[in-house]
């Protein structure tokens, strides 16, 4: 964010400590991730520490161009990030033990203890939406039945269970109507907290009525209500984990971002985790796209009393999904698939929101979009629509 160089005159200002100020600022911010909820708070603390350091060097650095560039840059960033001039600052003593309830500081702590530079933590993403579509921590995309209660995640720090119910009478199509999350007790950061959401009851609090875990001042675990009864976020700072839950129509969606080392911290008995290993083969609907091709263009009625005339053809479903999703990736085709299967337009919003959650939480922008494959090989962004559509049609036959 700041581009500061020595400009070739550092030897003329050997008593000026601006280089140390800049190095400390880089150290304080290098581990921060803009996708995490506490980014602005920690970045402002680092900026204030940078500002204090430059002030202390104001006299000896008076003629140093690097110093003046840094002062101007700090002021601009303070304005951009709405940082107050007064407030807490990042520690200027690297030997001090970082906050044990802030996962993003754990790597830095290990560096100080071991003396070796360690890479920043790797984060993984998992999402569940529609009827139902699963994106695993390995970026595998599957469409499954999984009716009833199933574990999405079950490790030493977190358990997430979803319950799926049929959406169309006489069909194996299901969607999520209940989510239960258990944040397991961890040191002094939080005691065990249980969260539960069901259709038409998406609370902004844990089951015990609280909205945070551990010391309320540290906010190591807390819930943020974004849209009343429709969208909440959970931020578990002590394990570097963020969870989004939404209600769209009569069903729930979930997206989660978690450090890889914590995702893999589970016992052999906990191996049934949809986010880790995907759906069991007997629950898969999409068998890698190799299924008999049904008759394209058949009208599929919704069948529910609330939607007596909600009919979609391949053409109208495609048009409806294209209104919100311009890129013809797997989320687009999942939208078409869901409309043909259920006739419920809320699944269009679910697919669109699922992609938005990927863009907010997935650590690798180049992997945001997944493109479907048909029998002969991969299908890319520029492939013709009817070729990619084969996946939707192939999957659809398993529901009928």
Automatic annotation (TrEMBL):
<feature type="compositionally biased region" description="Polar residues">
    <location>
        <begin position="84"/>
        <end position="95"/>
    </location>
</feature>
<dbReference type="GO" id="GO:0098552">
    <property type="term" value="C:side of membrane"/>
</dbReference>
<feature type="domain" description="Repulsive guidance molecule C-terminal">
    <location>
        <begin position="123"/>
        <end position="363"/>
    </location>
</feature>
<dbReference type="InterPro" id="IPR040287">
    <property type="entry name" value="RGM"/>
</dbReference>
<keyword id="KW-0732">Signal</keyword>
<keyword id="KW-0336">GPI-anchor</keyword>
<dbReference type="InterPro" id="IPR009496">
    <property type="entry name" value="RGM_C"/>
</dbReference>
<keyword id="KW-0449">Lipoprotein</keyword>
<protein>
    <submittedName>
        <fullName>RGMB protein</fullName>
    </submittedName>
</protein>
<keyword id="KW-1015">Disulfide bond</keyword>
<dbReference type="InterPro" id="IPR010536">
    <property type="entry name" value="RGM_N"/>
</dbReference>
<dbReference type="Pfam" id="PF06535">
    <property type="entry name" value="RGM_N"/>
</dbReference>
<dbReference type="GO" id="GO:0010604">
    <property type="term" value="P:positive regulation of macromolecule metabolic process"/>
</dbReference>
<dbReference type="GO" id="GO:0030509">
    <property type="term" value="P:BMP signaling pathway"/>
</dbReference>
<comment type="similarity">
    <text>Belongs to the repulsive guidance molecule (RGM) family.</text>
</comment>
<dbReference type="GO" id="GO:0080090">
    <property type="term" value="P:regulation of primary metabolic process"/>
</dbReference>
<keyword id="KW-0325">Glycoprotein</keyword>
<dbReference type="GO" id="GO:0015026">
    <property type="term" value="F:coreceptor activity"/>
</dbReference>
<dbReference type="GO" id="GO:0005886">
    <property type="term" value="C:plasma membrane"/>
</dbReference>
<keyword id="KW-0068">Autocatalytic cleavage</keyword>
<feature type="region of interest" description="Disordered">
    <location>
        <begin position="84"/>
        <end position="118"/>
    </location>
</feature>
<keyword id="KW-0472">Membrane</keyword>
<dbReference type="Pfam" id="PF06534">
    <property type="entry name" value="RGM_C"/>
</dbReference>
<feature type="domain" description="Repulsive guidance molecule N-terminal">
    <location>
        <begin position="16"/>
        <end position="85"/>
    </location>
</feature>
<keyword id="KW-1003">Cell membrane</keyword>
């Amino acid at each position: 964010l700041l581009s500061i160089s020595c400009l070739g005159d550092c030897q003329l200002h050997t008593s000026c400590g601006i280089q140390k100020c800049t190095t400390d600022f880089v150290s304080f911010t290098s581990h921060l991730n803009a996708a995490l909820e506490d980014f602005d708070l920690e970045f402002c603390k680092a900026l204030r520490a940078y500002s204090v350091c430059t002030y202390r060097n104001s006299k000896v650095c008076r003629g140093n161009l690097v110093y003046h560039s840094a002062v101007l840059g700090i002021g601009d960033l303070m304005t951009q990030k709405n940082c107050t001039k007064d407030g807490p600052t990042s520690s200027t003593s690297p030997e001090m033990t970082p906050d044990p309830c802030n996962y993003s500081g754990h790597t830095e702590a290990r560096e100080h203890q071991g003396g070796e530079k360690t890479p920043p933590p790797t984060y993984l993403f998992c999402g569940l939406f529609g009827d139902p579509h699963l994106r695993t921590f390995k970026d595998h995309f599957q469409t499954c039945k999984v009716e009833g209660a199933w574990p999405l995640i079950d490790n030493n720090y977190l358990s997430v269970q979803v319950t799926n119910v049929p959406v169309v009478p006489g069909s194996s199509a299901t969607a999520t109507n209940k989510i239960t999350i258990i944040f397991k007790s961890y040191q002094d950061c939080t005691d065990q907290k249980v969260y539960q959401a069901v259709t038409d009851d998406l609370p902004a609090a844990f089951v015990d009525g609280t909205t945070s875990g551990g010391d309320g001042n540290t906010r190591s675990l807390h819930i943020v209500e974004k849209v009343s009864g429709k969208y909440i976020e959970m931020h578990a700072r002590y394990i570097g984990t963020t969870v989004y839950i939404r209600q769209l129509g009569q069903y729930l969606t979930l997206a989660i971002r978690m450090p890889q080392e914590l995702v893999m911290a589970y016992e052999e008995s906990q191996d049934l985790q949809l986010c880790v290993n995907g759906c069991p083969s007997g629950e898969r609907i999409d068998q890698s796209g190799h299924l008999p091709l049904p008759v394209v263009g058949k009208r599929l009625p919704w069948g529910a009393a609330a939607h007596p005339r909600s009919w979609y053809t391949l053409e109208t479903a495609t048009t409806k999904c294209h209104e919100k999703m311009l890129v013809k990736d797997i989320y687009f085709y999942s939208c078409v698939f869901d409309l043909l299967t259920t006739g419920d337009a809320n699944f269009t919003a679910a697919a669109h929101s699922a992609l938005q959650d990927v863009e907010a939480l997935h650590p690798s922008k180049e992997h945001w979009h997944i493109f479907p494959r048909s029998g002969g090989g991969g299908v890319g962004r520029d492939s013709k629509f009817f070729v990619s559509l084969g996946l939707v049609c192939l999957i659809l036959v398993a529901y009928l």
